Amino acid sequence: MSFAVRVPGSTSNLGAGFDCLGLALDLWLEARLEPGEGPPRYGGSLAGLDPANDLVHRMLVEHEALRGHRLIVESAIPVGKGLGSSAAAIVAGLALARLALGDPFDRDAIFRGAAQEEGHPDNAGPAVFGGLVLAAHRPTRLTLHRDLAVALAIPDRTIETKMARDLLPLELPRETAVGQAARSAALVLGLTWGDPDLIDFGMDDRIAVPHRRHLIPGYDAAVAAALDAGAYGVTISGAGSALVAITARADAGPVSAAMATALSRAGNPAAPRAVAVATEGLVRLNC
Domain range for residue 63? Predict the structure, then answer.
């Protein structure tokens, strides 16, 4: 039998929602198992990938689910840009493993496995469930306001997630922790209510961005350009290198262009991308 799944990319560490708030994006990874033998085949943003570095392949091997099948993966999710490529691959691998082994296609179990594998749930939640997800005591779907849109600027250069995470402080002053909590709450309300002022306040992360902005040449100029173009709030997507802005729908194109232009002028070539929100997450495809 053949098995196939589709998983969206995502933007995480969304503003002050560090490690707990993520949004699925209309950028997809598709993975399938077909009867037969041979090495994995990769396309799209994964073209030329060594199977030893493929998380889909690793999940299948760890669960002994590859026997008698060949893996084929096609992805439109940029790699190393903070857009959920790792989470999508892990989710796809775990889902395919369950299908190949005859286990129930249990999204809750797949989410738990992916969150444990990644070490944080803010990409795994949107990848499995789609839309805007708050990783509280359980993954909770929120409703992004219909008037809001996402704008991206995606640099050519990549950032390694572990290196970016190692830059973060082990301790925070009390006032920083309190301020971050207030911003996180404001962001949840702003994204669900469509309130620009709350989004602006809530996208101002005080934990990760101050320690990572130097990794993205032109970051401050890009933020200023995005706000001038109408963005409600801007931050680093995941661990970077992409920037993400929340905007009105009509402003998504101009905002993404303004960010990309500012980064490129700073010697950090980047492409604009206005991308829709993926309202569904992990999907089993008919074969």
Answer: 3-141+277-285
C-alpha span between 197 and 233 (Å, rounded): 9
Cα–Cα distance between 239 and 89 in angstroms, integer?
A: 17
Distance of alpha carbon 235 from alpha carbon 237, whole angstroms: 6
Q: Which residues, in sequence order, are bridge partners of residue 152?
A: 244, 273
**Judgement on whether residues 155 and 243 belong to the same structural domain of the protein:** yes
> For 232-284, what is each residue's pLDDT tens digit?
999 999 988 999 999 999 999 999 999 999 999 999 999 999 999 999 999 99
154 and 109 part of one domain: no
Give the separation between CA 60 and CA 37, rounded to whole angstroms.
14
Of the candidate ranges 11-20, 82-91, 276-285, the one whose mean pLDDT is the lowest: 11-20
**281 and 268, same structural domain?**
no
Residues 110 and 171 occupy one common structural domain:
no
Of 21, 27, 32, 34, the closest CA to residue 7 belongs to: 27
